[in-house]
Write a structure and sequence with these properties.
There is one protein chain. The chain is mostly helical and 339 residues long. Helix content is 74%, strand content 0%. The chain has one domain. The radius of gyration is 21 Å and the shape is globular. α2 (23-32) crosses α7 (140-163), α3 (35-47) packs antiparallel against α4 and α7 (140-163) packs antiparallel against α8. The relative contact order is 0.14. The longest helix is centred in the C-terminal third of the chain and has 36 residues, at 303-338.
């Protein structure tokens, strides 16, 4: 592994040197691949084009991110930004690399969560688009365009993670392959129309399973906070360490989103039926609502309160997109037609 890690550092160095002046572009790409973007950006955009695909995006994002957390706890992957210092292999020949505001994630590095969730979620979106285009045009060339975009997106997100020193190349490849497989499998098992008890059971089950795994590994003498300590030690700036990158944050996000998905389908089975213009309006207002929900400051102490509020925040996300905003748009557009 040492040789693999070392080669990865030199790949990151060459990538940074060849991308001088384009740092902002790489950081935008890495934000597009951020798992929370699947919940806050991809989900609403997809839902108002296809309800089934939107539900699939939320389902796939939550399950794939949860599995990524489990894999990271089991595989103990290093991250480049701390391994450079911890390995002590570069004392005589320091790589010319720099960190960025998105570099200092606190969880273990393998496999890449950005690559894994991006591969899973965007497979749902772009395979659905490819099928739609083929059904309308019967053109193989036109319907293959989304799949080409899928490959470009995966490569771009992967390179951005290497560029900012968040991951080694092999971690990106592992995440992309795993995410693709999950996207294909989970997209065939979308829980549309399932009862609230199903989502409650899934949400609580994933939470308890992760906590049990965590407790079991701790009992075996494995300190799962090792990566947090290393991130704090080697991050260039203390303010780049954020609590929302801690593994338990992704766990509460996933469980909250799944419970929220169940509640949204419970309140309004089948969702609101809207023409295209009201759908576009709903998308605009939903995006604004999610932006403000995301920006809500949460107290970081005590941590249990933070995780509880983080859970509630992502329970709210499906309510805004599937119930509140389209319901209000439906109410006002129908009222205007009657008037």
């Amino acid at each position: 592994m040492e040789a693999l890690y070392t080669q990865g550092i030199w790949v990151a160095e060459r990538l940074q040197q060849r991308s001088t002046g384009r740092e902002d572009i790489w950081q935008v790409v890495t934000h597009i691949g951020d798992p929370k973007a699947a919940f806050l950006l991809v989900f609403p955009f997809t839902y108002f084009f296809s309800k089934r695909a939107g539900v699939a995006v939320l389902w796939v994002a939550a399950v794939s991110e949860w599995l990524n957390l489990v894999f990271k706890w089991m595989l103990f992957g290093e991250r480049p930004f701390w391994w450079i210092g911890e390995s002590r292999l570069f004392l005589q020949n320091q790589p010319r690399v720099q960190q960025f505001s998105s570099t200092c994630e606190t969880g273990p590095g393998s496999p890449s969560g950005h690559a894994m969730v991006t591969a899973a979620v965007w497979w749902v979106v772009l395979s659905s688009l490819g099928s739609f285009l083929y059904a309308r045009s019967r053109s193989v060339v036109l319907s293959s365009a989304p799949y080409l975009f899928y490959l470009v997106l995966l490569v771009s997100v992967g390179l951005s993670r290497i560029f900012i020193l968040a991951h080694f190349p092999h971690q990106v490849v592992a995440g992309s392959i795993t995410g693709f497989v999950l996207g294909v499998v989970l997209n065939r098992r979308v829980p549309e129309g399932r009862p609230l008890s199903f989502f409650f059971g899934i949400s609580v089950g994933l939470l308890l399973a992760a906590l049990a795994l965590h407790a079991g590994l701790q009992q075996l003498g494995i300190d799962l906070s090792w990566s947090i300590a290393l991130a704090k030690k080697w991050c260039s700036r203390a303010e780049w360490i954020r609590l929302d990158t801690v593994p338990f944050s992704s766990l509460t996000r996933d469980c909250g989103a799944l419970l929220g998905l169940g509640l949204a389908q419970y309140w309004k089975p089948g969702g609101w039926s809207l023409p295209w213009a009201p759908r576009a309006l709903s998308l605009a207002f939903s995006s604004m609502g999610l932006y403000h929900v995301h920006r809500l400051p949460l107290p970081v102490r005590p941590e249990l309160l933070f995780y509880g509020l983080f859970f509630v925040k992502f329970v709210i996300v499906p309510q805004i997109v599937m119930i509140l905003v389209p319901g209000l748009v439906h109410l006002f557009t129908n009222k205007r037609k009657k008037d």
